[in-house]
Automatic annotation (TrEMBL), chain A:
InterPro entries: MftB. This is Unannotated protein. Residues 100-126 are annotated as: Disordered. It comes from freshwater metagenome. NCBIfam families: mycofact_MftB (TIGR03967). The lineage of its organism: unclassified sequences, metagenomes, ecological metagenomes.
TrEMBL record, chain B:
This is Unannotated protein. The keyword Lyase applies. Residues 12-220 form the Radical SAM core domain. InterPro entries: 4Fe4S-binding_SPASM_dom (IPR023885), Aldolase_TIM (IPR013785), Heme_synthase-like (IPR034480), MftC (IPR023913), PqqE-like (IPR017200), Radical_SAM_PqqE_MftC-like (IPR050377), rSAM (IPR007197), rSAM_sf (IPR058240). CDD domains: Radical_SAM (cd01335). Its cofactor is [4Fe-4S] cluster.
Length: 126, 374
């Protein structure tokens, strides 16, 4: 990981990185970043909804609102989104879409496995 | 187990880690080969069958596959299928002995996106490595690494199976990986394939395992395939999920299209089905009897009274099975020695009945390679 502090602004517009794919699973979803080879878990269906719709909302908070989330739950969602920003799964408007990236070395490649290496689990409420 | 591992143990729509072996052919005869590879199987999948599997994996949103063998680069259609995977959005990570990585192939690989390479080496010097992988292989793998560097492939992975003879060279592996800007990957030696015969003499001693655990704890950037989860019973868990993923998050498609619970259990007891069946791989993954059973909560068995069961989950299924232990026994390398005790009792009661692999493609006359202890 780069040492830069992660800045997540809940009032800003966010969207999924163009090289990120999301796969529905019984517990929520798996999210994979083809660029940095990170894998992460979205462990709540509400979080999946937020991540899927965040690009169409003017801000993260607007996406929370549109998903019908009780504002008391927003801080835990902000925390989850912060870790997604840190893993470059979510990007803001300053992000310029990449060209083909053959440099695998941007971050720790965390999906090594003959069994189950995984990346961070984006832990939100169970 | 955490809530997450509970959820994962119950199964997923698609595997997280799918190993797909492309051929049993190999020009080497490594003494620990997990798939007893050597000769090509006449029933290996055709190019068209391979592509049909890729189509299904893409549909299941399998993000990437771990390609192995045998030596996958020996397939004449190797690049064609790799390119097909990439075009379909299925990332490729392949394990190779490096023998086919010449200057031209290194450049071709470097030009491709979504392709990761894991190159196998089993010693920091020719004497240590060649005892396991065969004469001349240390020099050959270094040549392959040089080609990858010259082609500016980027960060490849250097993969070492930990044995009694090489585990004390971990610092040298780290230095070698650094020299090439590579990632280091250390994995556990299981008694699978030809390893059934060699594991008992070559697996690291318990003292070596404790040293390895401490070494890995201090180096979370070193990849392990999450294979040392049995060591997490020592205290602080190693990075990773720390569970046996067989049939839950992991499985294997072998070169003839049979589907097994994990890459280390090429045995009929762990064969879930075949990609040739109706519904193909997806049906086997989602509803085979074997995988359904493996997703049930596991019985702690003999480990039920151990306070560390939550940390190690009783260890590796394949390692127990191929040493002759029941699946609810402790792992043979249990850090508290319970596995060694279980093996001793097995011997005392008339000897362990060790299963053999159901599929052996070792070259004739070279099946039982004497292990030279250095």
């Amino acid at each position: 990981m780069t040492a830069t502090a992660t800045i997540f602004d809940a009032d800003a517009h966010w969207r999924l990185h163009e090289r990120v794919a999301l796969r529905p699973e019984p517990f929520g979803a798996l999210v994979y970043h083809y660029g940095n080879r990170r894998l992460t878990f979205l462990r709540s269906h509400d979080l999946v909804t937020v991540v899927e719709t965040i690009g169409d909302a003017p801000s993260a908070r607007a996406a929370f609102d549109a998903a019908g989330l009780d504002p008391r739950r927003w801080p835990s969602f902000e925390k989850a989104l912060t870790s997604l920003v840190a893993g470059q799964f979510l990007v803001d408007d300053a992000h310029v879409p990449e060209q083909i990236d053959t440099d695998l070395g941007t971050d720790t490649t965390e999906t090594d496995s003959d069994s189950t290496d995984t990346a961070h689990s984006t832990d939100t409420e169970g | 187990m955490t809530a997450l591992t509970d959820q994962l143990a119950a199964g997923l729509n698609s595997p997280i880690c799918l190993t797909w072996e492309w051929t049993y052919a190999c020009d080497l005869q490594c003494v620990h080969c997990l798939s007893s590879s050597g000769r090509r199987d006449p029933n290996e999948l055709s190019t068209e069958q391979m592509k049909a599997v890729v189509d299904q994996l893409a549909e299941m949103q399998v993000f990437y596959v771990n390609i192995g063998g045998g030596e996958p680069m020996l397939r004449p259609d190797f690049f064609e299928i790799v390119e097909y995977c990439v075009a379909k959005g299925v990332g490729v990570k392949f394990s190779t002995n490096g023998g086919r990585i010449n200057a031209e192939n290194a450049k071709r690989l470097a030009s491709m996106d979504y392709v990761d390479i894991q190159i196998s080496l089993d010693g920091a010097d020719a004497i240590t490595n060649d005892a396991v992988r065969g004469e001349g292989t240390y020099a050959r793998v270094r040549t392959a690494m040089n080609h990858l560097r010259d082609a500016e492939f980027g960060q490849f992975k250097l993969s070492v199976v930990m044995t009694r003879e090489n585990v004390e060279q971990v610092d040298a592996y780290e230095a070698l990986a650094d020299e090439y800007g590579a990632e280091l990957r250390l994995t556990r030696f299981r008694p699978s394939g030809r390893g059934i015969d060699t594991w008992h003499e070559l697996h690291p001693t318990s003292a070596q395992q404790i040293e390895l655990y401490n070494w890995l704890l201090a180096r979370p950037h070193v990849l392990t395939g999450d294979s040392f989860f049995h060591l997490s019973a020592l205290g602080e868990p190693l990075p990773g999920l720390n569970l046996c993923g067989a049939g839950r998050v992991v499985c294997l498609i072998d070169p003839v299209g049979d589907v097994y619970a994990c890459p280390f259990v090429l045995h009929d007891n762990f064969k879930a089905g075949s990609i040739h069946e109706a519904g193909g791989f997806a049906a086997v993954w989602r509803s085979s009897d074997l995988f359904t059973e493996l997703r049930e909560p596991s019985n702690p068995g003999a480990c039920g009274s151990c306070g560390s069961f939550d940390a190690c989950g009783g260890g590796c299924m394949a390692t127990k099975f191929f040493t002759g232990l029941p699946l609810d026994a402790p792992d043979p390398e249990c850090v508290f020695g319970h596995g060694e005790e279980a093996l001793r009792q097995l011997e005392a009661n008339g000897g362990a009945v060790r299963p053999s692999v159901s599929v052996d493609h070792s070259k004739p006359g070279r099946k039982r390679i004497p292990v030279s202890i250095l």
